[in-house]
Design a protein that fits this description.
With 71 residues, the protein is an alpha+beta fold. Helix content is 34%, strand content 14%. The protein has three helices and three strands, in the order E-H-H-E-E-H. Strands 1-3-2 form a three-stranded antiparallel β-sheet. Strand 2 and strand 3 form a beta hairpin. Helix 1 packs across helix 2. The longest helix is centred in the middle third of the chain and has 9 residues. It is elongated. It starts with 8 loop residues before the first strand and ends in a 16-residue tail after the last helix.
Length: 71
Amino acid sequence: MADSKIPDWVTVKVAAALVGKAPRTIYEWIENDRLATRYNSEGVLEVLSKAVVRIEPTVRRGRPRGKPTRR
């Protein structure tokens, strides 16, 4: 990564702050197999920071096609 101050593996909260998203968005990316994850020695879920920064610009905005709105 260009900024050596950012560790390779970060928590979901830190990953969300890196890209200006909510933590639930990071969890959605994990559920959709877009991010590599691991559990650290304390049992905390971590994601690969390089992948978070790389995937953020490719994510499409808005409601997925075919998903109905709430009524």
